[in-house]
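I have been asked to look over a protein record a colleague put together. Alongside the sequence sits a line of tokens, each denoting a local backbone shape. Please read both lines and tell me whether the tokens look consistent with the sequence. Take the sequence as given and treat only the tokens as open to question. I have pasted the whole thing underneath without changing anything:
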Amino acid sequence: MLDEKQKLKQIIELGNEITEVKDIDILLERILAAARHIVNADAGSLYVKKNNRLKFICSQNQTLQKKLAPGRKFIYSTFTLPIDNESIAGYVASTGEMLNIPDVYRLPDNTPYLFKREYDEISNYHTQSILTFPLTINHRGIIGVMQLINACDEEGNIHAFPKEDEDLIKHFAGSAALAIERAEMTRAIILRMIKMAELRDPKETGPHVNRVAAYAVEIYESWVSGRECMPEEMERNKDVLRMAAMLHDVGKVAISDAILKKPGKLDPEEFKVMKKHSYLGCRLFSDPYSEFDKAASIIALTHHERWDGTGYPGHIDPVSGHPIGGYELGGGEAQGKKAEGIPAFGRVVAIADVYDALCSRRTYKEPWDEARVLETLRSESGKHFDPEMIEAFFSSYDVIRSMAGRYPDE
């Protein structure tokens, strides 16, 4: 076991690592994993304060994870809790007090908060020790709550969280809260850009782009797991992809309302104009300052390409919109990019975007039923979509399906 000095060094290193993560969803998962690692907790959950309630935002459980087949993920539902004494997390959020509970099934009768056993009953898991603490920023107060569950020794035996770990966790919680605030600001800026697009195209909503980005990350992670890729590289790419995928259709801000809001099918000339949104979106990031800018540019430009080469905009100069020499097809059209000539981020967002569009209600259609959606995606393998990425989609479909509830249409 690590001594206090070694743990403090580890906390500083983990604190530095999480400051490198920019996307809020990726960050919260990383923070929870880091906190569990510090105190060797078997499980944990993280709540973020939204509209004076606690939103259950992510959960990890090593015991339940081990029961799954290799490569499968622990799936959980998203819900909210009131900030009151009816739960441990609610109590901590209302008081700002850290709670270190050796055994939640042996709480004294006069305890001013409740432990809800039904969560254990639903998951077939036994919670014993809990360390629950607020995530606080000076000028905002409490922004969330983290729960670490079942401290374990080296043999896996459950024990109470040591008293000496409380100050170490408080130190880490301070770094985590600041990282969360920065990531929330980044997400807010991206969503403001989406709102500009939504003024023009009602389909381009916050929930839609969040779902597309979340699906894209799951597909990408599943696809990469079968290839040679360093874990550090995969984590960096997931962080960039999650943010950049949200802006896949941001170029629609430059398309006229007459085309964007037309209720029926576009005629050939209108569709030709609509296709310009791909390279117009790319232009917004023509002077890249970061990996995010580069990824956003690639995704905006290539997510409508097709594996068989029949997509758009094809081999063009994004600045002029004209075909690159040798790739002209006539009529101002360019030859489409195909197969692995389409960047991986473009290929993965193509699947995520089409999947969400088919599952969603639009002014011109009702949501398709699940069987029809999956049959369509499978039939487009090798035509519209990268066959390996479609397999990755289906291998992670249980997680993708569960994610829709996290970002419901308003």
Observations:
- The chain is about 45% helix and 15% strand.
